[in-house]
Amino acid sequence: MGSLKYALLDKVAFWSVFAAGALMPIFFLPIGGVPVNAGKTMLVSIFVLFALALWLIARLADGSLSIPKSLVIAGAALLFLSSFVAAIVSPVPEVSLVGQGVEIGTFSFTAILVFLLFLSSVFFANRKRMFYFYGTFLISGSILTLYQLVRLFAGADVISFGIFTGKISSLLGGWNDLAIFFGAFLILSLLTVEFLSLPKALNFLLYAFSAISLFFLALINFPVAWLVVGVVSLALVVYGMYADRADSEGLPGQGIQAQPKIMVIPLFVAVISAIFFFASSSAGSFLSNKMGISQIEVRPSFTSTLEVAKEVLKTRPLFGSGPNRFSSEWLLNKPDGINSSLFWNTDFTNGIGYVPTSLVTHGVLGFASWIIFLLVFLYAGFRAMFNFSLPRQSRYLVVSSFIIAAYLLSFAVLYTPNTAMYALGFFFAGLMIAASVSENLIGRFEVKFLGSPKLGFISVLLLIFLTIGTATAGYFLTKKFVAFAYFGKSIAAANSSGNLEEAEASLGSAIRLSEEDLYYRALSELNLIKLNNLVQQTNIPQDKLREQFQLFLGLAVDSAKRATELDKTNYGNFMALARVYEAVVSIKITGAYDAAKDSYAKALALNPESPAILLGSACLEVANENIKEGRAYIDKALAKKENYTEAVFFLSQLEAREGNTREAIKRTEQALLLAPNEITVLFQLGLLKYNDRDYKGAVEALSRAVELAPNYSNAKYFLGLSYEKIGEDKNAVKQFEEISALNPDNEEVKNILSNLRAGRAPLANVPPPNNKPETRAKLPVKESN
Prior knowledge:
Elements: H1 2-23, H2 36-62, E1 64-68, H3 71-88, H4 93-97, H5 107-123, H6 127-154, H7 175-195, H8 200-220, H9 223-249, H10 264-278, H11 280-290, H12 302-315, H13 326-332, H14 354-361, H15 363-385, H16 392-414, H17 419-438, E2 444-448, H18 453-497, H19 500-513, H20 517-535, H21 542-566, H22 571-583, H23 592-606, H24 611-623, H25 627-640, H26 645-658, H27 661-674, H28 679-691, H29 695-708, H30 713-725, H31 729-742, H32 747-757
Antiparallel strand pairs: 1-2
């Protein structure tokens, strides 16, 4: 009876790991506001911890332990230990250990990956299970392929589930991750055709998969994917020559030398990969342009990552800044020139790849652990791969699992793949170990601990401790996941329907399950919105107005303060607190100005290169009627980022408010003589002339800015208003139509377009203060740069 119990536990645990691997490419949570990647992290974490708990309980029931004798498992254990120690000594251990539960960079997710590798190495140590998984994985990949093809040719609105709204949206997650997946799908299909004797129909299907995978690789045109696919394909060609010779001779060194056969299709793939890699801008862009596909993804360069690492290692050489804390170090040590780019305000969570990032977040020891793990993995894989005494089917399982794992893990060095691609790399590494065990290339470490009282006591005690720890971790992570889902629901309610009550209720549920600074920041922002909405109402009795004002203000302040308590190293928490205090400075709330100034100073200390924080300080000073200090902060912001449109806009509004518009126009025109094609200067001149009611002059300057930057939405906005003022309504409509295409969710732009088409004033039904462009405090449209 006991053997039946542990066998059943092992079986359920196996199916849990099996499902995690098979469902990763296509699983998602149909909850608005919850990213696809977060859903996959939840899937793999819950299934792996569940399987681990059952496996541990089965070992207690069985009284024995059997694990593969693999250096790869030891290398993975080293990753686990180095990440754990780095998280414990992190400046914010909670962020490094678990975070919000869905981040890839935490210790908890590293532990999940290590457990996944170990469990797959244990449960798949027979051919039948591996072949069954391969078949299911191909079915999962087929579903993903069919889904992407239907959406590509039938339109982005087809089977969108209300989540996948764009052409580049994917069940897998990121667009570049889709390229990584199709590269793996292509390689697995080619290996299967080359190694196994299959029915013609199945061969045809695999060739079709290969062709579709190449099509998607060309469409996505991700250079790193082409590079790795090309290198792996070329390696397969070379390996095939050795393998064919070994098969012809029986064993190496015996028999007659045979002419090796070249693997034609992998060679073809290698050539195609080289063409697209070296001519990606022309060869690849042709197809993507034809299909109307465009996307921009950016990450720190290798040099930038090393620059940040160099600064961190000066003070924390052994363990780095702590897992999941790259963004904090990036902001403190941001390389020169970033503020001039499109991504000046992006808080990167990783460097160029996960392994280089570990030099920042895990220090020298963590980085060394990665190098050791990868080296022992490659050693074990090549050793198994070149054992030509194995039967062809056995060699297929060993070679395919190693090649796919090596392919996927290489992206941990060169890129930052999403959860599915990252976790599948560890899963296939475990399959490689399992195949090696199944084919007796490596042995097992076996212990029967119930026969010895002393060993049995220690072993049982350790297994009980690990089981309780696993169950506790599973419960804790599940609470985190549910909290994150509530947070996503809150964001969706606020952004989609504007239902602040529902958003607040969901945030409350999230916070009750897991206190996170992100959730408290959101709650503070929510109460600040309610506060702003309240002061615009005129039909509320004064006593009730005062009561609700104090309530919303208190909640906003308390939430932002709690966020700063949870993470004192996140500048966003202090920005949230500063914005709350700044909102009430103009009505002379005692202590608000000092508190806001202090919060901005703390935020700037954590993000010293941010022009946005300096602009926030400028707004604060102006609200407190310190105009001179406000101008000084604007100058500092523009010194950090010369093309900072928000700062230029605020300065122009300040000039209009102070009655200095004419003088400001003269200064701007002088600046334009020195830099006639400087877009930001043209925008400033056009805005100043608009405020001075020189609408023809505004059209001249703003049209030049739009000519130089066709997607400059804010320049188009004021150009459109200027056209309407001089009676050119058709041109005005054209500008706002183009803005609407660039910003489809902007309600104000939609209202203006409706007004213009109906012959009304453009801002007829836009609520104050936005109905007076010359006095509004913020830009009407959010720019990407």
